[in-house]
Design goal:
- This protein is of the alpha+beta class.
- It has two domains: 1-30; 38-170, Immunoglobulin-like (Sandwich), CATH 2.60.40.
- The chain is built from three helices and ten strands.
- The strands form two sheets. Strands 1, 2, 3, 7 and 8 form a five-stranded antiparallel β-sheet that branches.
Length: 171
């Protein structure tokens, strides 16, 4: 009797697990593998890498792109990194972020939303971003070695996406 009940419970668990796996595969199966970061800047032992990704959890087709950065510190000491992100359209500055700063521990990397390293596309579409007349750069880069700074991990339930100031709004 106990052996029979054990078999029934085991079969139910296997079926539940199989259904769960198929459901997860159906929901997340159409998403591509995560894109690798590409190196944008390397100065004084600091690497700034990036990738473009769709906004939102389920990455709808019409969702805007976001610029996600990763900062790596290959130095044996803390480094304070300050910069702004600048978007160009037809070789003219179209949008800029506010200047941001991050304290990075020795031989560590920080990345993505959890570190507040996500920037909006400033209204640029995916087609415009992939166009040759669109460019972006890390501007006003300051690297301070042996900085007396504190790393700040801002864990947020819903991280704020850094807004870009459009050139037309600044004039």
């Amino acid at each position: 009797m106990i052996n029979h009940l054990f078999k029934i419970v085991t079969v139910k668990r296997i079926l539940t697990f199989t259904i769960l796996c198929f459901t997860l595969a159906a929901v997340y199966g159409n998403q591509s593998l995560p894109e690798k970061y590409k190196t944008k800047e390397f100065h004084e032992g600091i690497t700034i890498s990036y990738k473009w990704k769709k906004a939102g959890l389920f990455k709808k087709k019409d969702a805007p792109l976001q610029l996600v950065l990763k900062i790596g510190n290959e130095n044996p000491h803390r480094v304070l990194v300050r910069f702004r992100v600048i978007y160009y359209w037809k070789a003219v500055i179209d949008a800029t972020s506010k200047k941001v700063q991050y304290c990075v521990k020795p031989n560590r990397k920080i990345r993505g939303k959890i570190w507040d390293l996500v920037f909006s596309s400033a209204g640029f579409t995916e087609e415009e971003i992939s166009d040759d007349i669109f460019m972006w750069e890390i501007g006003d880069l300051d690297i301070i070695h042996d900085a007396d700074c504190e790393t700040r991990l801002n864990i947020k339930i819903k991280p704020e996406i850094r807004k870009m100031n459009k050139r037309s709004e600044n004039e």
